């Protein structure tokens, strides 16, 4: 089992807050204690909106997922991946791994 973890905040103001560290720690704890897995890679887009998928770490993660490098995708909340339902549906249809939102 190898887990992709995705974190995101949309504004530069949020970068300086606790949101990203909180998201990361919650995802790591979930992987460790709920999934019994410590093999993960974190992808973080700080200061990027989820209105589209033009985010560097999101694109890097999706390329690796499509190459079957991960068995699971963890997000803190679904809106960290997308706030656009069509983008989310396209992404979901294009991958063959489970997506888990821990919140």
Structure notes:
There is one protein chain. The protein has 103 residues and is α/β, with parallel strands linked by helices. 40% of the residues lie in helices and 20% in strands. The protein has helices spanning 12-15, 19-34, 56-66, 85-94, and strands at 3-9, 40-46, 72-75, 99-101. Strand 3 (72-75), helix 4 (85-94) and strand 4 (99-101) form a beta-alpha-beta unit. The longest helix is centred in the first third of the chain and has 16 residues, at 19-34. The chain starts with a strand and ends with a strand.
Topology:
Blueprint lengths: L2 E7 L2 H4 L3 H16 L5 E7 L9 H11 L5 E4 L9 H10 L4 E3 L2
Parallel strand pairs: 1-2, 1-3, 3-4
Question: What are the low-pLDDT stretches, counting only 5+ consecutive residues below 50?
Answer: none
**Roughly what percent helix?**
25-40%
Main β sheet profile: 4 strands, parallel
Give, in order, the helices and strands: EHHEHEHE
Task: Give me a quick take on this structure.
By secondary structure, the protein is α/β, with parallel strands linked by helices. The protein has helices at residues 12-15, 19-34, 56-66, 85-94, and strands spanning 3-9, 40-46, 72-75, 99-101.
């Amino acid at each position: 089992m190898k887990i992709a973890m995705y974190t995101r905040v949309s504004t530069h103001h949020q970068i300086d807050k606790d949101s990203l560290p909180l998201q990361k720690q919650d995802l790591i704890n979930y992987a460790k204690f709920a999934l019994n897995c410590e093999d993960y890679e974190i992808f973080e887009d700080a200061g990027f909106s989820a209105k589209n998928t033009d985010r560097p770490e999101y694109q890097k993660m999706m390329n690796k997922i499509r190459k079957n490098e991960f068995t699971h995708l963890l997000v803190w909340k679904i809106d960290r991946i997308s706030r656009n339902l069509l983008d989310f549906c396209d992404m979901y249809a294009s991958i063959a791994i489970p997506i888990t939102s821990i919140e």
